[in-house]
Amino acid sequence: MSLTSDDFEFIRELVDQQLGMALEDDQQEFVATRLSALARRLGTSNVEILIAGLRSASNRALQQEVCEALVTHETSFFRDQHYFDELTQRVIPTLTQARVAQRRLKIWCAACSTGQEAYSLAMILREQFNERLRGWNVDLLASDFSSKALQQAKSGHYSDVEMSRGLTPARQAQHFRRDASGWTANEQLQKMIRFERINLLGSWPDLENVDLILLRNVLIYMRPVPRQQILQRLVRVLHPAGAVMLGSTESTGSAEITCVRPR
Ligand SMILES: C[S@@+](CC[C@H](N)C(=O)[O-])C[C@H]1O[C@@H](n2cnc3c(N)ncnc32)[C@H](O)[C@@H]1O
Fold first, then answer.
1. Which CATH class is domain 5-70?
2. N or C: which end of the chain has fewer CB within 10 A?
3. The pTM is what?
4. Which runs of E-coded beta strand occur in 19-173?
5. Long-range contacts for 167-171 (Cβ within 8 Å, ≥24 apart)?
6. What is the spatial order of strands in the sheet that 157-158 belongs to?
């Protein structure tokens, strides 16, 4: 299965407009494979017809399906453990000390995929900071553009394989309950997080004075211009003494923002 270069350019422009995502010249086959699977799932006979449907009308639902099919949702619990060590040992203690008078903490996990990153953070808060944060207003917002990923995140439900990626048996037992098809985060953990659909290229509702932003492993897929625009906007929603964590291969470019890097 291959795509005409016209169709490839069309899809490239679509994901750029919708997500700021950059598709490289050599990704035609990848796009063809992912869209063939989508066409099959939607009962469309082939990719040409799927793309023709996209071209003929501004079908937002289909645009969303195509974007969902092309992004990577790769994630895991405690992904890059050293980030979570840094959060536990330095970042959260510093932030809680700075906010002791206000007794409030605002955290934004800005491309949370299927939720493992946000739940990892919630586990740390429960395990290590429960006493210190008693009576505080802790707002942990986790967002993603993908409705499908968010659906799983909200359910808090994970397969055995997903659970085995990053969670010790002790943590599984402490924060999750077993059921017939896998594991579900317990109520205490679930109620710590509010999940919302936010496209980083769109509006960011009610976000100001955020103390901690996790924006890991998403800018890497974006073109430089939207990447830079997002970083500039982060500066505006971040508390002046707040902290930002990007993925290990991502940088702030020219944005005036200091990132926390694990030691
Ligand atoms: C590779 S996952 C990273 C998940 C998690 N942050 C981690 O590091 O494990 C990238 C996520 O970014 C989301 N994403 C991509 N473009 C986005 C955009 N423009 N706005 C919001 N989320 C986006 C994708 O849906 C995907 O779930």
1. mainly alpha
2. C
3. 0.95
4. 104-109, 137-144, 157-158
5. 167/77, 167/78, 171/77, 171/123
6. 157-158, 182-185, 176-179
CATH number of 81-246: 3.40.50.150
Amino acid at 98: A
User: Ligand 1: which residues within 6 Å by Cβ?
Assistant: 19-21, 71-75, 79, 111-113, 117, 144-146, 149, 199-201, 216-218, 247
* 235 CA to centre of ligand 1 in angstroms: 19
* Domain spans of the chain, in order of start: 5-70, 81-246
| pLDDT band at residue 1 under the 50/70/90 scheme | low
Which of 14, 113, 230, 248 best tests ligand 1's pocket when mutated (most atoms within 8 Å of CB)?
113
Separation of CA 73 and ligand 1 centre (Å): 6
Q: Where are the alpha helices (DSSP H) in 77-137?
A: 81-86, 92-98, 116-129
* pLDDT at residue 261 in the model: 79
Beta bridge partners of 195: 142
- Pocket test of ligand 1: the residue of 21, 63, 144 to mutate, having most ligand atoms within 8 Å of its CB, is 144
